């Protein structure tokens, strides 16, 4: 019998943010693969879990995956955790999951915290449709290029950012998306100094410049989507059809029918509904 690979989400700050199921799995598996054994030991000690830890990080991903998959094939069960949140979300684990799947090993997700979802649900920005763009490039020119691509994105855009780049990223966002674009800065979520600031990009930058304390810690940046432009007759006609349909039908159905009848993209019609507060 092959073992099972569990992908277990762990807290992003507050140690209590871990499910009973996750703790049970961490107790029962033969070994826990983690990014930093010293960091994960704090969580395990807190819950009195004595399962052995094995280092699995971006530098040894290929080698460590091969050895872990071998153990899974021999029947051992393994949990993968990262330093914070959900593994594979800007954290190691892809190689392990791919190799385990190739070897026919069962891969079981154990859901829990994730910084982008935690930030989104408290941001006040639409969460029906969003894009997660991870970390922006380090170089300002590359960062601006990436942000320019997102200039007309109508869904909420979400980024991760490190404290030493937060000011530079906000400045580049102002340069590309404009100072008046609404945004949210979610800092140190679930931790003692958690702050969720809302305002225009320029207001947020001013707040951070005025209070260096607000420049510290871990950040999720959320940008309100750009309004959908209705530039031609076809789009205007689509909007008219949508407005009629949405009076009678649930939003999803109205968006889908508008797309079929007019050729406008379904997500565009759906976004119209979101903007008017529909469900
Ligand atoms: N796997 C993690 C997840 O599920 O969110 C993300 C890991 S990624 C390497 C780390 C980044 O996530 C940080 O630089 C920060 O942008 C964001 N992050 C993690 N914890 C956070 C927190 N407590 N508050 C705000 N952002 C956080």
Descriptive labels:
279 residues, Methyltransferase, Cobalt-precorrin-4 Transmethylase, Domain 2, globular, binds S-adenosylmethionine, 3 domains, Cobalt-precorrin-4 Transmethylase, domain 1
CATH superfamily of the largest domain: Tetrapyrrole methylase, N-terminal domain
Low-confidence stretches: none
Distance between the termini: 46 Å
- What overall geometry do the principal axes of the alpha carbons give? globular
Helix content: 40-55%
What value does the Rg take, in angstroms?
22 Å
What would you note in describing this structure?
It is a single chain. The model has no long low-confidence stretch (mean pLDDT 95). A hairpin with a 7-residue loop joins β8 and β9. With 279 residues, this protein is an alpha/beta fold. The longest helix has 16 residues. It has a five-stranded parallel beta sheet, sandwiched between helices. Helices cover 43% and strands 18% of the residues. The protein has three domains: 110 residues, Tetrapyrrole methylase, N-terminal domain (Cobalt-precorrin-4 Transmethylase, domain 1), CATH 3.40.1010.10; 108 residues, Tetrapyrrole methylase, C-terminal domain (Methyltransferase, Cobalt-precorrin-4 Transmethylase, Domain 2); 44 residues, no CATH class. S-adenosylmethionine binds next to α5, β7, β8 and β10.
Brief description of this entry?
The chain is 43% helix and 18% strand. The protein has 279 residues and is an alpha/beta fold. The structure holds S-adenosylmethionine (SAM).
């Amino acid at each position: 019998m092959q073992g099972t690979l569990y992908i277990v989400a762990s807290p992003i700050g507050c140690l209590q943010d871990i499910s009973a199921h996750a703790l049970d799995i961490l107790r029962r598996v033969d070994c826990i693969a983690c990014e930093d054994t010293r960091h994960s030991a704090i969580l395990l000690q807190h819950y009195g879990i004595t399962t052995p830890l094995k280092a699995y990080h971006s530098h040894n991903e290929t080698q460590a995956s091969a050895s872990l998959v071998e153990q899974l094939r021999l029947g051992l069960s393994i949990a993968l955790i990262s330093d914070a949140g959900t593994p594979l979300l800007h954290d190691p684990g892809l190689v392990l999951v791919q190799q385990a799947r190739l070897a026919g090993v069962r891969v079981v997700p154990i859901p829990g915290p994730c910084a982008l979802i935690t930030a989104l649900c408290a941001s006040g920005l639409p969460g029906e449709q969003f894009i997660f763009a991870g970390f922006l490039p380090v170089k300002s020119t590359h960062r601006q290029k990436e942000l320019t691509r997102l200039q007309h994105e109508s869904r909420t855009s979400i980024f991760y950012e490190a404290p030493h780049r937060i000011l530079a990223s906000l400045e580049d966002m102002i340069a590309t998306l404009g100072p008046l674009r609404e945004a949210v800065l979610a800092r140190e979520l679930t931790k003692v100094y958690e702050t969720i600031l809302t305002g225009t990009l320029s207001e947020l930058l001013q707040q951070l410049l005025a209070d260096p304390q607000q420049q510290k810690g871990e950040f999720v940046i959320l940008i309100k989507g750009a309004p959908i432009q209705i530039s031609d007759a076809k789009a205007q006609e689509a909007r008219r059809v949508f407005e009629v349909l949405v009076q009678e039908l649930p939003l999803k159905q109205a968006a889908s029918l508008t797309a079929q009848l007019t050729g406008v993209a379904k997500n565009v019609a759906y976004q119209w509904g979101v903007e008017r507060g529909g469900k």
